[in-house]
């Protein structure tokens, strides 16, 4: 299942990865190589096999509904790229 | 062309847990920006989610209340997309294995009939933060306090056929989640949000038409208006030769119209997959049994009981059972006066008007259930007439007496029921209006009917309204006929 | 013996005997790192102030009567463990300047035990690699041959320990990233059972595969470190609530009666025959110690690589979405709109291999491909787990090569990333199944170290350490240091 340039651009967009013009051809080639490796899976007969998402097949533990977190805004926002009045700033979000 | 409207609703209920669904941050509304955003809520690298037991319990409560299938295991999945109010770049939600499966909710329509609305599923997910568009030098500000608040997304089957039905359904959900104590239902604050999927099709057609989704309509009134507007828009569009586009639209209450949301050019590919940081959630039978046993009497059951136990009409039962607080108030009134019909009339009539006028919830009623019940007892034992009762009620509301008896005493509102006294009063009235009496006696049935009211009015005036109306009528008739 | 040649165990004795103080030891190693590391590039950050403060504290605790085995022990952390107020970079530009606002559980636990953190270690960017060549901070060199790779992704951890800059380090293993560098640098490295070590604060690559673990010069040191690192953490939903074994007590158990399995699929084409010989030699040694060996089969092993290279990138593509220039880390200059902010911050912030894997993962999860790729891979994952469950019904331990080849030359595999993926063939099955695995030194070929891998059933890290320790009592490969270090 070979990827074309347009597929790569679509994937990069979904993943919000800005690929430069120069990067696209090589990325396409390498991705196709990787997909070639992965396509070997199709030869395996997996009829009736239940997918395994978690290796140990354990179940989720529940946490008591108690508030233990405190306001740490100053500390957490000290490492933010752009903050004002306690809000994280981003280019305007247009609805 | 006859058109049929098809509506499905997705309601997001913010669960009223203390802490968030995957982190131990507070969920209180209205805090300073980002003061309730922990490392987990901020999506800091290396952080991990741990599931809130109360969110699970609340979801199960809801599922049991709508008679839904609760799967033995449910799984959280990641819904991947980029948006600044979504710190991890994915929303932890549920896809193939939601906590609550198929159920239903019965709604009462305006004509008193019941309709069963199917509920496809309900699942748990985390809420996103908020984008504030106040102009920060052309930037938007993001507040992540809300990020991670637990939501229960309730998806209805496309069983709804009108805006009114939609409102009835949303009201029923609203009542139910409040009954269960799992959500405060405050639509203005966003605790209950409604997305409406609306489509039209020619009557008789089996296939559904293309639907548009109207997002974030935050009041019952707007839901009705938005749906009606959208239906009109779609019908006009099709009749003009156009086709309905599957898209998301926003309702603008100021203009009373829906408009397309900017650039949802291609449908988002959310790439759902089971969240590897969370394990499958197991719901044991004993847990289900325990939650079921802890359920309060639900609106439907209460409605039915009000009908059978108290002989109320379906409509009255629905109104009174609409909220737990209303139902409890009604039953308390009834408990005092032992007359469900009167209690219902007073609660739905005078009391509701008073509350509406002053914009009060029933919990803030200036007249307590005990006071109202006591007053109704005095109507029943003829101490006061229904008309006088209104004055007593107003006096109680104004705080002019601790009980109905006190008010009646203070204001001398006791009804006159002594037939001798009434007769004496009537004799005076007739004597004072001898001419009219002669005219009455000279007239035919029809004319008499019209004149009778005059005498009743005079009698009430003479007795300052305190004469028992029933006795007045009876005795007056006797005297006039004789 | 110079201080830098001491193992953790020897350091513990030395400190107890007051041969030296933790402060002296730390100062000595800090100086050594400064002189020696430029050849290796194994450290991204040296935390001199923190180290000296922790060393002082350890000395004070010892003076007050404490004597834990790790009290005053100098270590360093792979740079994907969050260390509060210290740069935690994952060797990526996108985390430039990211001073973690909290400590990983592993970091906290080791600090409580009294370890002294000398710095943060270089790695493949976001743990994606087998050569430590994809780091934003430059490649790491193998101290055994500076023209060769040390392995990855815990290449910095391996090089630093192998060169005796530190006695032990933490690493993480998603597809072999502790075991493979250990094999290429003559170290002992352990990947615990999935869920044994907390992932809180361990920046995620592939959530269902990642595990943190120790790299050291021998099994005993690994046991010391693991004992402090491992254990249930309520902040990690995938952390297992199971009591810890006493790993040190387990070391001395005799091997009589141990049943070892040798998978026939391990010896196919692609394995350097000389490495195969080393495996058989280890088997002989273990037989002398009382073990029995039989041939077993892991029939689905060959499908592991494609499955891994779907699952890991898929999970990573989602895990790395949070790196968006909004709340922390690198933000591009003058973003013109939101889309530009995301695309340029991420495009400029991530390296090529990371971007490739994100794209593979995005593709594998996308509409129309999810069943054929992601679901298929998880089905194969179950087959691989089943193979191990069946095998462990017959044997107690599985032995084999850690890598199919010796350490390769820097730059050799850059043109074809897929060729590097194939090096993971022996290690990734343990991550897919969640079982524990260990690599230990088993000799040299052309002067380059060879590692042999041991795999055990769930929660039998003790068994792995035991077997490695017993082997290390009768051999001395693990004691050898690279020339000049």
Structural write-up:
- The complex is a heterotrimer of chains A (95), B (482) and C (485).
- With 95 residues, chain A is of the alpha+beta class.
- Helices cover 33% and strands 9% of the residues of chain A.
- Chain A has a two-stranded antiparallel sheet with strand order 2-3.
- Chain B folds into three domains: 3-290, no CATH class; 297-411, no CATH class; 419-481, Arc Repressor Mutant, subunit A (Orthogonal Bundle), CATH 1.10.10.
- In chain B, 41% of the residues lie in helices and 19% in strands.
- Chain B contains 15 helices and 16 strands.
- Chain B has helices at 53-65, 163-180, 220-239, 285-294, 299-310, 314-321, 324-337, 340-357, 369-380, 386-397, 404-411, 419-432, 434-442, 445-462, 469-481, and strands spanning 3-14, 51-52, 73-74, 77-80, 90-93, 103-108, 114-126, 130-136, 139-143, 150-156, 192-202, 212-217, 248-252, 257-260, 273-274, 281-282.
- In chain B, α12 packs across α15 and α14 (445-462) packs across α15.
- Chain B is elongated and about 95 Å long.
- Chain B starts with a strand and ends with a helix.
- The mean pLDDT of chain B is 92.
- Chain C has 485 residues and is α/β, with parallel strands linked by helices.
- Chain C has 16 helices and eleven strands.
- Chain C has helices spanning 8-16, 22-40, 48-63, 105-112, 155-162, 179-184, 219-229, 247-250, 273-288, 304-319, 338-349, 352-365, 371-394, 417-421, 428-433, 461-474; strands spanning 43-46, 74-78, 116-121, 168-173, 188-191, 211-216, 259-263, 292-296, 397-401, 437-445, 448-455.
- Chains A and C meet through α1, α2 and β3 of A and α10, α11, α12, α13 and α14 of C.
- β1 of chain A pairs parallel with β2 (51-52) of chain B, so a sheet runs across the interface.
Total helical elements of chain B: 15
What helical percentage do the residues of chain C reach? 25-40%
**Gyration radius over CA of chain C:** 21 Å
How many domains of chain C? 1
Number of strands of chain B: 16
- CATH architecture grouping of chain C: Alpha-Beta Complex
CATH topology tier name of chain C: Amidase signature (AS) enzymes
Count helical runs of chain C: 16
Q: On the 0-100 scale, what is the average pLDDT of chain B?
A: 92
Assembly classification:
heterotrimer
User: Biggest chain pair contact, residues each?
Assistant: A-C, 53 and 74 residues
Number of strands of chain C: 11
Task: Supply the number of structural domains of chain B.
Answer: 3
User: What's the order of the H and E elements of chain C?
Assistant: HHEHEHEHEHEEHHEHEHHHHEHHEEH
Spatial strand sequence of the major β-sheet of chain B = 6-7-10-1-11-12-13-14
Low-confidence stretches of chain C: none
What percent of residues of chain B are in strands?
15-25%
